[in-house]
């Protein structure tokens, strides 16, 4: 691990990340209905978290880029440090949500006005799966698209060419929702165990994660840096 | 991109493709949006759609190639746009023929009935057949067929119950034609008199008949048309009233045989019953419900059907549960009561773990699809499409058994209103809170969802039987279930309470009287079904003086099902109809009720009437003589008969002795057979002849029962012979030697 690099990336991402964690924690604690795997807010939050983390970690504004890439460690190491940081932060979010639910905090807050507690306490953990899946998928896709754009140098394109590029990125978001369509259909309503994920959806998620990660490493190796 | 950059474009494009693969999969397979579904719909639109089909396919393939070769995502964008256009085109377009599908018997508890049309076996109920397939298989008949069995009874002029008075072996109906003509040709299909129906028969080309296990079914024209759904494919759901005339006598023989063997069914008896279980089960269940002695036979039937030992192991239970689920999946519906519903309850009492496991597994079945319920006072049939039908027996068993292991899970699943009916049956404080919370939410609901929410909540209340919740449910019904929308739900709620009411508790009668959101006629209907000490009190308060219509409703109801707690009402009614100002025409019905309501008050009343002698006694004797009844409980009349001295009265009494049918009555008949008065002696001998005939019938009954069980005769051979009916060009007439040619 390269601590200097991690500290640099953390500085970029921490403010937004902490804000996000606070918001999602507040939502998890004060949501007025039992939490479920199809909670739209949680899905949207996972999506935003993945997109935000990838965008902040892998984007090097201005001169930072040449500075970082000129450090005495390999590009592979640079990539894996950043990727690892993104994954770790997502896991921290999951851990916080897990602790909030498992500690019985929701039970304490809502038992006087919602008759579902404490019976539903452990079933509410099902909210972790969409959060994890959506966040990971969004992170991987955003990372891949950013690195692809940097490799193909689409950022240097004239403005009239950029507009279709943004449209395409929006389209990817839609494509992702198509993938998510499968995942949501595969997740049985209100269950914790991952065995209820459809095999096709699991295979897709696995392939997507492996392929986008490996392709992104290759992109990172071949990004052209201007001094 | 710099040409010197060694990153592989192909790798980038493949990754992009993998990224987009769900989108392509959705484009291809989604039922509403996908290429395959859309192609199917477009092909049905006609030949003009073919260029579009090719365009669509080419576009789809081109976009994949473009993406893989050049890494361009414009292709999927274009194809998405085109598909959206085509989807809206295929939805909005009114071009193309509607497809009709016929579904027969899907909502009936008796399944597996062979359906014939014009002599062609179309399959067994629940039957589903498209019009195209039907027309291909069935050739129209030009003349009405010979009816091997027919039951025609002309309805009275004010009879509004159409078509029920005639039952045919071959029933005329072109169901497709009826539904294709819109508005329907009422002149042709909504006849109320047999004469008018006959006029239409000569032009009928499709004749249906039904058989089950080799027994013929008779059908009236009622319910031989069904509701049809909208959309491009129209499903005509038909549930004809099929009656198997031999079934009643068949069951009577079997029950008689069972009674002769001390209600212990032999293996042959069980085997025979199970062979005809579809025909016999429901009626036998009804009898067993009212007769404790038949309960062991019912349990033995369930055990024999599923091979359940007296002390089943958990493995046995798992096997039985799996067998039940497979059967239910095969037929697509679950009936209560049925051998399956009784079996799952029976094995669940010994080992409920397999039910819990299968219940959890069944929750993984994909949602969506259709579902439905049909019910009568006795049975309910539940339907669900696809694999979800397997949930039905499990939900039934869980509702009955309330296993603790499932409670938390059910509570979690109830957050969207599901399974509240099951949770409500758990006698736990949490259930009370949950149901109260749900009902409060429905009460507070406004806007367009309030109406449907209220209807659902009313029906939910009917399904919950929990003493801790009863007051809350009743208050909810009283405060909210008002208006026509909730009428059905309220009736369902009250009927469910009456079915399970404590016979000694007047609590329900009190609630119906004071709080049920019903009109007086409905309150009377339900209160008079309750056998409690307060029933008569509430009934008399609801019956305003001079309103004979309400009184006669109650009398009609009591003649179908007597209620001992209303003996005073029966006595008062008898007095009123027998009085000079009383209309008198209900006295015959009241006599039936008196015979069947054997209470001390009724006996006292009859004895008083008897002691008055004169006209009252004669009227009573006249009614007792002319009505059809057989009640040994009326044996207390025999000593009174023996004391009679007047000839007319003795003559009338002599004709009643066979109805009393006890040793005392027969001894009196034997004594009177030697009477010096020839008329009385003749009447008494006639009674003794009846006894002899009965004994012969009894012997024949035993012989027939033995022959049936030994498979020497078939159930339909029990039917009294009847001449066949043939069409004479205008109507059906009995076949004779003259018109046989």
Kindly describe this structure.
The complex is a heterodimer of chains A (227) and B (741). Chain A is mainly α. Chain A has 8 helices and no strands. In chain A, helix 4 (75-102) runs antiparallel to helix 6 and helix 4 packs antiparallel against helix 8. In chain A, 36% of the residues are buried. The model of chain A is unreliable at 186-196 (pLDDT under 50). In chain B, strands 2, 3, 7, 8, 9 and 12 form a 6-stranded antiparallel β-sheet that branches. Mean pLDDT of chain B is 83; it is low at 159-163. The interface between A and B is large, with 47 and 40 residues.
Mean pLDDT of chain B, to the nearest integer, reads 83
Counting DSSP H or I runs of 4 or more residues, the number of helices of chain A is 8
Decide which structural class fits the backbone of chain A.
mainly alpha
Write down the Rg of chain B. Answer: 33 Å
> How many beta-strand segments of chain B?
17
Helix and strand sequence of chain A: HHHHHHHH
Taken as a percent bin, the fraction of beta residues of chain A is under 5%
- The Cα radius of gyration of chain A reads 19 Å
- Helix/strand structural class of chain B: alpha+beta
Largest sheet of chain B: 6 strands, antiparallel
Give the distance, in angstroms, between the N- and C-terminal Cα atoms of chain B: 97 Å
Q: What is the average of the pLDDT values of chain A?
A: 81
What pair of chains forms the biggest interface?
A-B, 47 and 40 residues
The general outline of chain A is elongated
> Could you list the spans of chain B in which at least 5 consecutive residues all have pLDDT below 50?
159-163
Key words describing this protein structure:
heterodimer; A: 227 residues; mainly alpha; 72% helix; B: 741 residues; alpha+beta; 35 helices; 56% helix; 9% strand
Write the layout of secondary structure elements.
The complex is a heterodimer of chains A (227) and B (741).
Chain A: H1 3-30, H2 40-58, H3 64-69, H4 75-102, H5 105-110, H6 128-152, H7 159-186, H8 199-222
Helix pairs in contact in A: 1-2, 1-4, 2-4, 2-6, 4-6, 4-8, 6-7, 6-8, 7-8
Chain B: H1 9-29, H2 35-45, H3 50-70, H4 74-92, E1 99-104, E2 114-117, E3 120-124, E4 127-130, H5 131-137, E5 150-152, E6 166-168, E7 171-172, H6 175-180, H7 186-189, H8 194-201, E8 207-212, E9 215-219, E10 227-228, E11 233-238, E12 242-243, H9 245-260, H10 267-275, H11 277-290, H12 295-306, H13 314-331, E13 333-336, H14 339-350, H15 353-362, E14 371-375, E15 380-384, H16 391-401, H17 407-413, H18 420-425, H19 429-444, H20 449-463, H21 470-480, H22 487-500, H23 507-514, H24 520-527, H25 535-542, H26 548-560, H27 567-578, H28 587-596, H29 600-612, H30 614-626, H31 637-642, H32 647-654, H33 657-660, H34 663-673, H35 678-709, E16 725-727, E17 732-734
Parallel strand pairs in B: 1-11
Antiparallel strand pairs in B: 1-4, 2-3, 2-8, 5-6, 7-8, 8-9, 9-12, 10-11, 13-15, 14-15, 16-17
Helix pairs in contact in B: 1-3, 2-3, 2-4, 3-4, 9-11, 9-35, 10-11, 10-12, 12-14, 13-14, 13-15, 14-16, 15-16, 19-20, 20-22, 24-25, 26-28, 27-28, 29-30, 32-35, 34-35
